[in-house]
């Protein structure tokens, strides 16, 4: 039930602190070792893994992009991310030492299911990250990490996405632990940092009026761009997808470094441009995104900048500043995505659209 909310989506956005906390719950034993109880692959089997391929569709594929940054950083195992609908058709190089990670909220997405069936035929090991107990994809996997987001009813994924991102971090840390690589030792401190994140998500929800007002101001715009670097890039893609599917406006997310390779031609006076700024700790990334913001601003873009507390470097070039709590770079998507979800939800509502059931879309896509 909607429990007093107008939309399931609003309710599900507000459930995100709990979805993240519940996905983290009980994963560390007394000795600070990470436990994933639905993991049916032994440490020996995991140590044989020399390549990871993440497959998913839509929003789940953006969780996969975040996973790539975290998993490669923590485990030093090469990790590719691919749309499930493309994977089977390109003759991928996979064998017994490949771990295929399928991410699916519903566990029923046909493209993802077909991709894991193909991967298993090629003898790859398959681990799925799923929110629906007993659904087809986890049933057909060698191992499962369940996200504990609770049922997601709105077609547009919100708490499903954040909990997928958390499960991807857990997988990365677990593999690091199994391999005994450098970051293995830091697992409990990263888990501690993850436990702080629900409070940060809650703050973004509490401060939602800022983006709701912004949506009212921009309600007549027909095009929006989203810019990000590093893990801010998948956040930009997710912000754009939410806006397309809910508000039916043109929205495009891209990697900030690609700006001058094409998208900057779209910039004209008044074009709203969301920019996700990486934490200040990432000096080099910061400097570059700062110049990207200046470039689009000089061409008249209306810049809406998401930046962590205390970082004022971008303020002179921002028409709107959305403050984010300070979190480690890799974890920033968990807080930065929230205002973009709220913005899309509000814009759709202002335009009179059905937020929970956007036109032409289904909650689970069971055809290829
Ligand atoms: C977007 C959205 C879709 C799903 C995609 C995969 O808001 O909900 O893009 O993420 O259809 O669905 P699952 O995760 O169920 O496989």
List descriptors.
368 residues, alpha/beta, five-stranded parallel β-sheet, 13 helices, globular, binds fructose -6-phosphate, transferase, glutamine-fructose-6-phosphate transaminase (isomerizing) activity, glutamine amidotransferase, Glutamine--fructose-6-phosphate aminotransferase [isomerizing]
Quickly describe the structure:
The active site is at residue 363. It is built from 13 helices and 10 strands.
Describe the protein in words.
By secondary structure, the chain is α/β, with parallel strands linked by helices. The chain is built from 13 helices and ten strands. It has helices at 8-14, 16-24, 43-47, 58-75, 84-87, 110-121, 136-139, 159-179, 187-206, 209-217, 232-247, 283-298, 332-350, and strands at residues 51-56, 79-83, 98-104, 125-130, 143-146, 223-228, 250-255, 272-276, 302-308, 320-324. Strands 2-1-3-4-5 form a five-stranded parallel beta sheet, with helices on both faces. A five-stranded parallel beta sheet has the order 7-6-8-9-10, sandwiched between helices. The radius of gyration is 20 Å and the shape is globular. It starts with 7 loop residues before the first helix and ends in an 18-residue tail after the last helix. It is found in: Cytoplasm. GO terms for molecular function: carbohydrate derivative binding; glutamine-fructose-6-phosphate transaminase (isomerizing) activity. Homodimer.
């Amino acid at each position: 039930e909607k429990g007093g909310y107008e939309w399931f989506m609003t309710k599900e956005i507000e459930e995100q602190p709990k979805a993240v906390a519940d996905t983290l719950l009980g994963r560390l034993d007394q000795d600070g070792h990470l436990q994933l109880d639905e993991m049916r692959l032994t440490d020996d089997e995991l140590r044989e893994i020399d390549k990871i391929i993440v497959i998913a569709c839509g929003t789940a594929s953006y969780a996969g992009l975040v996973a790539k940054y975290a998993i490669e950083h923590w485990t030093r195992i090469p990790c590719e991310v691919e749309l499930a609908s493309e994977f089977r058709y390109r003759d991928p190089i996979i064998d017994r030492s490949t771990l295929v990670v399928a991410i699916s909220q519903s566990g029923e997405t046909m493209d993802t299911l077909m991709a894991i069936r193909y991967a298993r035929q090629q003898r790859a090991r398959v681990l799925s990250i799923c929110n629906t107990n007993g659904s087809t994809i986890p049933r057909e996997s060698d191992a499962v990490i369940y996200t504990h987001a609770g049922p997601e009813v709105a077609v547009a994924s919100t708490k499903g996405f954040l909990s997928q991102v958390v499960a991807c971090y857990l997988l990365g840390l677990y593999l690091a632990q199994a391999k005994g690589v450098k970051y293995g030792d830091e697992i409990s401190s990263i888990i501690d940092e993850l436990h702080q994140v629900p409070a940060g998500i809650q703050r973004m929800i509490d401060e939602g009026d800022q983006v709701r007002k912004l949506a009212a101001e921009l309600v007549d715009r027909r095009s929006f761009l989203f810019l990000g670097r590093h893990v801010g890039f998948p956040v930009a893609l997710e912000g754009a997808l939410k806006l397309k599917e809910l508000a039916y406006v043109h929205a495009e997310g891209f990697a900030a470094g690609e700006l001058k390779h094409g998208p900057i031609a779209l910039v004209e006076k008044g074009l709203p441009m969301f920019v996700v700024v990486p934490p200040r700790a990432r000096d080099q990334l910061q400097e570059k995104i700062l110049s990207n913001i200046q470039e689009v601003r000089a061409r008249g873009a209306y810049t809406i900048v998401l930046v962590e507390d205390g970082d004022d470097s971008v303020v002179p070039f921002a028409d709107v500043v959305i403050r984010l709590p300070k979190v480690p770079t890799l974890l920033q998507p968990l807080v930065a995505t929230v205002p973009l979800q709220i913005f899309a939800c509000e814009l759709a509502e202002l335009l009179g659209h059905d937020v929970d059931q956007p036109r032409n879309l289904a909650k689970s896509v069971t055809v290829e």
